[in-house]
Amino acid sequence: MDLIQVRGGVPLRGEVRIAGAKNAALKMMAAALLTKEEVLLSNVPRISDVEVMTGLLRSLGVSVDWNGPHTLRLCAANLRPVRFEIEVAEKIRASFAVLAPLIARCGEASVPNPGGDRIGHRPVDRLVAGLVPFGVKLDYDGAYYNATCERLRGCEYTFSKNSHMGTEHQLLAAVTAEGRSVINNAAQEPEVDDLIEMLNSMGGRIRRSAPRTIEVDGVIELHGVHHTVMPDRIEAGTFACIAAATDGDIYLDGARKSDMTALLAKLAEVGVRVDSYSEGLRVRRGGPQVAVDVVTEAHPGFMTDWQAPFVVLLTQARGESLVHETIFPNRLGYTSQLNEMGADIELVNPPVPAHGYNWNARDDDPSYYHAALIRGCTPLHAGNLEIPDLRAGATLMIAAMCADGTSRISGVHWMERGYEHFLDRLRTLGAAITGAVPQEASA
Which residue among 101, 192, 218, 237 has its CA within the 20 to 30 Å range from the CA of 244? Predict the structure, then answer.
């Protein structure tokens, strides 16, 4: 049973290496399908999502092996478009990213509807709709998306709303499509630019002609590459919130200031001191912590994955804060457990922000709340906590480390999906954690 105990009240101090970005690595593993030659990916995080993706690619005939602690060697010379198990797709949403490369290489694909965290409906309609202009014929049989296309042809496509994975999927289709493709209202996330860098190093011809416009001149084929995955800005943001919330002092080795400007600005408003160095960031309390308001947005705005850890920090800040979630419709469920620990958080539905919500209107639900009103500063006490998803897991860990007493936390396997050896690294910073994740749940 993946149950741990966390004794709170211990400031975390020291240095932690920020792992490679999960959301970049998984799409790059899919991009390796576009060439028959060998692809080496360095700085790949050792997490369960990567292991699941590794198994998926092997089922498609791809050779995948670890070539050192954080380097993956992939070769898709014998790629075959077989159906992989629905159970695999249910574990990670990024499984859907293989659809475009399979079509590009094999002319056909059958990919299950993907799963992932339970944070509201996360449809793949933007990904599917984005393939049709390339000449792809698609049908959905209730479980699998079945696609065929003799030759992908360049096209111009405009996303109605920001789509991080949708933009990446378009790139994977366009890079070897015949002719020029133009992607309008394209996502600006750093992970997208890291994928572009990798594809261009493989022989692709991709450029941003404007912040939200990407032009792609298709090439006949791509070659192998050795690419280093960017550091994980979600993980860096999590450790930054840990340092601030526990009154600690942590150096984030490898964290990039340029990827985290929105978060760092809000941390400064709260009263957190962040010192920037060429190879990382140092985060510590700079003075009394005060309330701030936050609206999650697409990059370069405040990232939705920073929202939950930041809310824990705000429970320890003096005053009333409002955190408005606009990317996913149902990402505040973890707050009920924070309230049980002594937090004063009220879920509300404020006016729709000027830029609107990023989800489809039909995916909303009257029972969902889109903002959290946090009244601080409230001492937290230990509790019996159950982790419902990846990012909420890190959030409840932060709360337990801030709390008075010893908390019992179950569902720790969720965190192993996205944080490399998370518990061990917290222990090296001084966290009082007992218990371990079973081997089969960890990377």
Answer: 192
